[in-house]
Amino acid sequence: MFTGIVEELGEVVRVAPTAGDSALVAVRGPLVTSDARHGDSIAVNGVCLTVVEVADGVFTADVMGETLRRSALGALRPGDPVNLERAAALGSRLGGHLVQGHVDGVGELISREPAEQWETVRFRLPAALSRYVVEKGSITIDGISLTVAEVGADEFAVGLIPTTLALTTLGTRGVGDPVNLEVDVLAKYVERLLGSRLADTSGTGGVA
């Protein structure tokens, strides 16, 4: 589990295809590797990866073909910056919101609107995810916990403060770039629970 508060802007060192359609990805991140061990979880652009090896500030992780297809990690190349976050520790502050590191879909940056103290950035999202995105709700973009400012039929906007622009990949993303999206898991649980309840009461003429 993560919080969506990026700890470090890392750099992809190597992407090596392995058996089948998987890949071995090496990422430089001195901060997140300072206490990392084999088997630990580190979120890379919002995707939870398991550490296979750590050496000299670089960690390596196996990325399955399913993950490469369902996220924007498949487009990573050596030299690319990536948002890094270690798994949350019990008892630590929850600065963002509950983030699983399980990408729900890939969005697309469609516009940037600079302002004096912040920047409004708009993203297109897959139709299947639109029902989970609400104004003032939480969403994770490339591993960053953000608050939704506006919602449209197939798009949404967030406001980025200077710190987010300077310390994460969203500061340099351009129009057309893909981003990993994870909607608020609470919304999915509510949908599932309400769906089950409605199904259970469908033959009684109403909801108890």
UniProtKB/TrEMBL annotation:
<dbReference type="InterPro" id="IPR001783">
    <property type="entry name" value="Lumazine-bd"/>
</dbReference>
<keyword id="KW-0677">Repeat</keyword>
<dbReference type="GO" id="GO:0004746">
    <property type="term" value="F:riboflavin synthase activity"/>
</dbReference>
<keyword id="KW-0808">Transferase</keyword>
<feature type="domain" description="Lumazine-binding">
    <location>
        <begin position="98"/>
        <end position="194"/>
    </location>
</feature>
<keyword id="KW-0686">Riboflavin biosynthesis</keyword>
<dbReference type="InterPro" id="IPR017938">
    <property type="entry name" value="Riboflavin_synthase-like_b-brl"/>
</dbReference>
<feature type="domain" description="Lumazine-binding">
    <location>
        <begin position="1"/>
        <end position="97"/>
    </location>
</feature>
<feature type="repeat" description="Lumazine-binding">
    <location>
        <begin position="1"/>
        <end position="97"/>
    </location>
</feature>
<dbReference type="InterPro" id="IPR023366">
    <property type="entry name" value="ATP_synth_asu-like_sf"/>
</dbReference>
<dbReference type="Pfam" id="PF00677">
    <property type="entry name" value="Lum_binding"/>
</dbReference>
<protein>
    <recommendedName>
        <fullName>Riboflavin synthase</fullName>
        <ecNumber>2.5.1.9</ecNumber>
    </recommendedName>
</protein>
<comment type="pathway">
    <text>Cofactor biosynthesis; riboflavin biosynthesis; riboflavin from 2-hydroxy-3-oxobutyl phosphate and 5-amino-6-(D-ribitylamino)uracil: step 2/2.</text>
</comment>
<comment type="function">
    <text>Catalyzes the dismutation of two molecules of 6,7-dimethyl-8-ribityllumazine, resulting in the formation of riboflavin and 5-amino-6-(D-ribitylamino)uracil.</text>
</comment>
<feature type="repeat" description="Lumazine-binding">
    <location>
        <begin position="98"/>
        <end position="194"/>
    </location>
</feature>
<dbReference type="InterPro" id="IPR026017">
    <property type="entry name" value="Lumazine-bd_dom"/>
</dbReference>
